[in-house]
Amino acid sequence: MSQTTSRSRRSGIRRGEAASGWLFTAPVIILLGVFLVVPVLMALWVSFSDWGGRGSPFSSDVNFIGLKNYTSILAGGGLAEQDFGISLKNNAWYVVLVVPIQTAVALGLAVLVNRAVLRGRGFFRTAFYFPSVTSSVAITVLWLFLFSTTGAVNQMLSWIGINGPNWFNDPDGIVHNFLGIFGVTQGPGALTQNTLLGVSWWDWLGGPSVAMTAYIIMAVFTTSGTFMLLFIAALQNLGGDITEAAMMDGANGWQRFWRITLPQLRPTLFTVLTLGLIGCWQVFDQIYTGTKGAPGKTTLTPAYQSYKTSFVDQNWGQGAAIAFILFVIIVLFTIFQRWVLRERAVSKRRMRLYQPAITASTAVPAAATAAAAEKEPKR
């Protein structure tokens, strides 16, 4: 009887705790539902409709048109497909260059600032992190001045005899410019005649424009500080036992970093790469404040194209479709990145490489023990 009573009391307490938990989380759930889930579902419906932005998207005047908005963007053969292809190409180069560079810079700064021998570490942490807390609009306006034709960047380049480009007005790809040094101004027919999303393969491989390159430099400058703090926190949580053991085994600084420190930073590395990937695919405010896709649509991005299609061209269905295509791209890249950074079992080839070292490390103590036993006088 007493056991039954105690069980009923415990179950009652658990039900009370569950009710209290739901009560405390209810405001957040309601806010997320009203301001996140409902708008996303509405946007999803708009992407399958011909809503023109006037009235309710659920009115009887709005028609369901299926995948027409998506097919117009991905395989329509018109201006919508070409603009989306151009924006995707621009953003792809932006991601390919910004994500690895900002990750490497952030990790390098973290390792540098985390060194105990460095004086004024607090100052350097603040200095490196300061651009990350500055408004992106303010940074973009500053960048427009710095990278103007007569700006500070071109002035410094002139000191070493380099005639700086007209950064935010130059639509040429940097790869095409590099090939132009060797007299290559036109690609082979296989690249110029075949297209993907209305853009020739020659243009896909042309690299980011000079204007987009300025945005790439700005992104690395403004985001490396934030990721530096994540790496610093991870470095300070690493134990020093393994590193000290590696030092005793004769491992140099690079070997300790590559073989010991970096593998332990895998979770933080995945977080940094994921956040960088999402942020780079969603780049919008810099483009909106700066060039608005110019020159020649070489700074156009899918996020800005979605905004322009919806709010400027009043084609809300295609604008919403672009947003959801971008969402799918981000999810696929994140899954691929997680697969690349997954934990792997040590291969047999590596085991064979490590086996001599393991054997030697175990043989030395055994030999020392045997030698000591031989020297010990018999009783």
What does the secondary structure layout of this molecule look like, with pairings?
Blueprint: H1 2-47, H2 68-75, H3 79-113, H4 121-133, H5 136-146, H6 152-159, H7 174-181, H8 189-192, E1 195-196, E2 199-200, H9 201-204, H10 210-236, H11 241-248, H12 253-264, H13 266-281, H14 285-289, H15 302-312, H16 316-340, H17 348-375
Antiparallel strand pairs: 1-2
Helix pairs in contact: 1-16, 2-3, 2-16, 3-10, 3-13, 4-10, 5-10, 10-13, 11-12, 13-16, 15-16
Characterization of the model:
This protein is mainly α and 379 residues long. It has a domain at 93-172 and 207-299: MetI-like (MetI-like fold, Orthogonal Bundle), CATH 1.10.3720. It is 71% helix and 1% strand. Strands 1-2 form a two-stranded antiparallel sheet. The protein is globular, with a radius of gyration of 29 Å. 26% of the residues are buried.
Offer a few descriptive terms.
379 residues, mainly alpha, MetI-like fold, two-stranded antiparallel sheet, 71% helix, globular
How would you sum up this structure in a few lines?
This is Multiple sugar transport system permease protein. With 379 residues, the chain is mainly alpha-helical.
